[in-house]
Amino acid sequence: MDERNLETWIDKLANYKELNGVFVPTAIEAIWRLKTGDFSYAKFNVTKIEYGKPIIF
Questions:
Q1: Which residues make Cβ contacts (< 8 Å) with residue 34, sequence separation at least 6?
Q2: What are the residue ranges spanned by the domains of the chain?
Q3: Cβ neighbours of residue 25 under 8 Å, at least 6 residues apart?
């Protein structure tokens, strides 16, 4: 939201699978908990995971 209007957000994690030897959720949804009701603002489907690769973002 913004500095004056902070809202709670949650994430829903589902459809766990093993990818590269790690058990991870492959369906992820980010949701704002607003007074008017829940608002889903992002959904992700993980298809590939890499780890142990030191790189700068």
A1: 7
A2: 8-41
A3: 13, 14, 15, 16, 46
Q: What would the DSSP string read from start to end of 18-50? A: EETTEEEEEEEEEEEEETTEEEEEEEEE-----
The C-alpha atoms of residue 9 and residue 28 are separated, in whole angstroms, by 13
Q: Which of 3, 1, 10, 7 shows the shortest CA–CA distance to 34?
A: 7
* Per-residue pLDDT tens digits for 23-55: 999 999 999 999 899 999 999 999 988 878 787
CB-based contacts of 1: which residues, under 8 Å, 6+ apart? 7, 32
